[in-house]
UniProtKB/TrEMBL annotation:
This is SUF system FeS cluster assembly SufBD core domain-containing protein. It comes from Zizania palustris. Coiled coil: none annotated. It holds the Pfam family SUFBD_core. Residues 209-442 form the SUF system FeS cluster assembly SufBD core domain. One of its GO terms (biological process) is iron-sulfur cluster assembly.
Length: 473
């Protein structure tokens, strides 16, 4: 199976101008005329691709192989529906078609001040535009000088063109990314104590359209390096009602004996759409720790793809989704591929759905033939706080190796353990207060895994506020 970073890509991959450059006069008509097969892209996909390509006319040539491959892919890609695409069987993304798509103004984005950060190394994207970078080992792709860091980034982006598991949203980002923020940690360097804070702020347009942004981040942790990443997606200036479409991609390469600690918080507007790809490649004896907390957005789809490419590889995943609004959809699709001996992985997914929220979890762990002595665990636990809330879970272990220790489990409940409630009541605490405390502890279990106190504290406070408001409805 191809990985996004395991292969190299020759510059001969560049496509004919009529395929790659959608915006050229008559190019789109020529592409349509050349298509004779019935399974082709629909007009909406091509229209968005044209808009995205027009917006990045002056991009880095290092992105050309990736753009070319995604342009070719989109020509034969249809818009996914619940009936036509198994990966979207439980996920209704029609909200993305409900409003006209527009693109952010780069001048306006650059004019906005970057939010303050408690950490010296930080990156800021405003509506998908990379506006600032600060700190050591952090740079925009366009600003990387010739040298090892630039060469590694170029090779990783070219190899990303070969990513076999990508979808429509990954390709949109590849075409629409104006620049790439690069975090390059050299061999043996540790940045574990002071994380790189990556802030994604979104504002929308206010004109009735859905502003689509495509920020992209590449993290390179060389042999023996350590780095912590704190990724935050939030709204600015709309007081919770901004309408926009965030479509980010983050790719992380963890080389031999390296360690990456990755915290990801999504707290966007309840009128926003958020479709995200996180792609991880782990080499021998590397470790990747991931904590996700998603509490915002009307439509939230996260594709998490991890491939272990060496023995003694350790992957730790924790995710918590909270749906507090009507018609809110949160979807986590994860795929973990183990190809080598003595791999270790643990995945915990938790969610709380209230009102008419719909939560989806599709977790796939594939233990291939040579991944002997693997220890892999997967657990999903969900709470339904409303009779109209819905949860679809699909934990999936595919085991081909015969010397493994693998477990998985799923639990969906509409109420807490009566013994736990009785414990509170026996101490004079009423049942509503007891249920609130248990609901908070259910989510805090994952939020407390965020290793950086300012981020953990703010996220806990926002979760507590949303939990209180959802219980009042």
């Amino acid at each position: 199976m191809s990985s996004p970073c395991a292969a190299t890509c020759s510059t001969s991959l560049r496509l004919p101008p009529t395929i790659l450059r959608f915006r050229r006069p008559g190019a789109l008509a020529s592409v349509r005329a050349a298509r004779s097969a019935p399974a082709v892209s629909d007009d909406l996909v091509l229209r968005i691709a044209e808009q995205l390509e027009d917006s990045v006319a002056e991009s880095s040539p290092l992105l050309d192989p990736l753009r070319s491959a995604s342009a070719l892919s989109l020509i034969s890609t249809r818009w996914p529906t619940r009936r036509s695409n198994e990966a979207f069987r439980f996920t209704d993304i029609s909200y993305l078609r409900s409003l006209p798509i527009s693109l952010p103004s780069q001048a306006l984005a650059l004019a906005l001040a970057a939010p303050s950060s408690p950490y010296p190394s930080c990156i800021h994207f405003s509506d998908g535009v990379l506006t600032s970078t600060s700190g050591v080992h952090v740079s925009a792709l366009a600003d990387l000088p010739p040298g090892p860091a630039r060469d590694r980034a170029a090779a990783a982006l070219a190899a990303s063109a070969e990513f076999a598991d990508k979808d429509l949203f990954y390709d949109f980002n590849a075409i629409g990314a104006k620049d790439v923020a690069v975090v390059h940690v050299p061999e043996g360097v540790s940045m574990a104590d002071d994380p790189v804070h990556i802030m994604f702020s979104y504002s929308g347009s206010g004109d009735g359209s859905m502003v689509m942004s495509n920020p992209r981040v590449l993290v390179l942790a060389e042999k023996g390096a350590e780095v912590a990443i704190v990724e935050e997606h939030f709204e600015v200036g709309q007081e919770g009602g901004g309408c926009y479409w965030a479509n980010p991609v983050m790719e992380i390469i963890v080389e031999e004996n390296a360690k990456v600690v990755h915290s990801y918080v999504q707290r966007q507007s309840f009128e926003a759409a958020h479709t995200k790809w996180t792609v991880i490649q782990q080499s021998k004896s590397s470790k990747y720790e991931f904590v996700e907390v998603s509490i915002g957005a009307r439509l939230n789809r996260h594709n998490l793809h991890i491939q272990q490419l060496g023995p003694e590889t350790d992957t730790q995943l924790s995710a918590f989704h909270f749906l507090s609004q009507n018609k809110q959809i949160h979807d986590l699709h994860s795929k973990l591929i183990l190809d080598h001996p003595r791999g270790l992985s643990n995945q915990l997914h938790k969610c709380i759905a209230s009102s008419t929220g719909n939560a989806i979890f599709d977790g796939n762990i594939k233990v291939n033939r040579y991944a002997q002595q693997t220890d892999a665990g997967q657990e999903t636990r969900c709470l339904l706080l409303s009779p109209k809330a819905l949860v679809n879970v699909k934990p999936n272990l595919q085991i081909i190796a015969d010397d493994v220790k693998c477990t998985h489990g799923a639990a969906i409940s509409g109420e807490h353990d009566p013994n736990a409630l009785y414990f509170f009541q026996a101490r004079g605490i009423d049942i509503k207060t007891a249920a609130d405390a248990l609901n908070f502890a259910f989510g805090a279990h994952v939020i407390n895994k965020i290793p950086f106190k300012p981020i953990e504290k703010n996220t806990l406070a926002q979760f507590k506020e949303l939990l209180a408001s959802s219980r009042q409805e």
